Amino acid sequence: MAQCLVPLDGKEASIAPSLSKVKRGIGTSENIIADATDDNAKGLYPYQTDPEPHNPTIIPKAILEKFHFTFLIRHPRLSIPSYYRCTVPPLDRVTGFYNFMPAEAGYNELRRVFDYLRLAGQIGPTVAGRQANATVIDSPVGKIDICVVDADDLLDNPSSIIKAYCENVGIDYDQDMLIWSTADDHEQAKAAFEKWPGFHDDVIISTGLKPKEDKQSKSDTEQYNEWAEKYGEEGAQVIQRTVDANIGDYEYMKQFALKL
Fold it and tell me: Which of 26, 49, 93, 102 has its CA 20 to 30 A from that of 202?
């Protein structure tokens, strides 16, 4: 979802007006973001506000610094056709998304946010799950480790990845984290995904996170033929071009992924 925070096509960001005013003064121990009341706060992007140096997002650094960031990635060969499926019949009537937009893949925007946080010293240079001196690329010393989780690694070994993640972010691991089988669990999931009908149906009806049974990968040709069978030749070509356009950013992020 990084594309919701970063202007597409590499355009320079300007801070969202509703987030651009910071209260400072006596008795204020930290920056408090106040709502902007000018007319521009009601406008659409691009905002008539000043950008922050090197910040690719519409969110001020003062707010970004309040978060402990984790980056979840997935290979474009899996994520792109999954999203494409939600934008064509019959699922488009459920999701309300009737046009597939390759620019919304989000990989480049995620990488830009990631690199900015490293440059700003908010994350890194140590990488979660690796020895302190096993850094990939030198960067300023950050407050927290770089934490990137690959969805395939998570599905291959859910318990070990979640346990390692919890250890890194300071959460007590409980094996029940991998189970959501009660009626209350399902109601909570439905409420959480209510704004995105059709996108998370498989998760809503599931009962837990288990290792995937079929770990055999398909060849590029087999994968393409599967797309063509489902979405036609034109659809398969759109998916392939979008996958190719985003593999570089995915592989860049993959080098930082949590390892066991």
Answer: 102
- pTM of the full predicted structure? 0.85
Whether 14 contacts 24, CB under 8 Å: no
71-73 and 123-127 beta bridge pairing = unpaired
Alpha-carbon distance 247 to 169, whole Å? 28
pLDDT for res 57: 94
Q: What is the CA radius of gyration of the chain?
A: 20
- CA end-to-end span of the chain: 26
Average pLDDT per consecutive 10 residues, the chain (260 residues; last block may be shorter): 84 86 52 46 69 92 93 97 96 96 94 95 89 49 84 95 94 95 90 90 89 85 97 98 98 94
